[in-house]
Amino acid sequence: MLFSRRGHGRVTVTEAHRAVQEGTALLLDVREADEWQAGHAPGACHLPLSRLAAGADVPGAGTAATVVVICRSGRRSQAAVRLLSQRGHDATDVVGGMERWTRQGLPVQDDRGGVGTVI
């Protein structure tokens, strides 16, 4: 992993944003469809935790060394990291999720490419 971890397999929103911008990590948003549509990080891939738990493959996971998982606050992303790790992925979760992402002033877009919001 190219950035430092906070606790066990956790990164800050700033570290996650930087890694995605540099192309060293894939940002995976595991929130539900309505949450994703209202607002998500640009460049993120979407796969709800329920589908991941049912065995769905991570879109684009083969292109990045690390899968950085985000949800609204951090609970679902921690569960997703456990699942991904069991499947052999190098996965880490974002401390504070999209709530902290927006508080840090990082970009959020809706499903049409406009300015998004976190619900």
From TrEMBL:
Q: Which PROSITE patterns match?
A: RHODANESE_3
Gene3D superfamilies attached here? Rhodanese-like domain (3.40.250.10)
Which InterPro entries has this protein been placed in? Answer: GlpE_sulfurtransferase (IPR050229), Rhodanese-like_dom (IPR001763), Rhodanese-like_dom_sf (IPR036873)
Q: Where is the Rhodanese domain?
A: 21-110
Protein name (record) = Rhodanese-like domain-containing protein
Source organism of the structure: Streptomyces argenteolus
Phylogenetic lineage:
Bacteria, Bacillati, Actinomycetota, Actinomycetes, Kitasatosporales
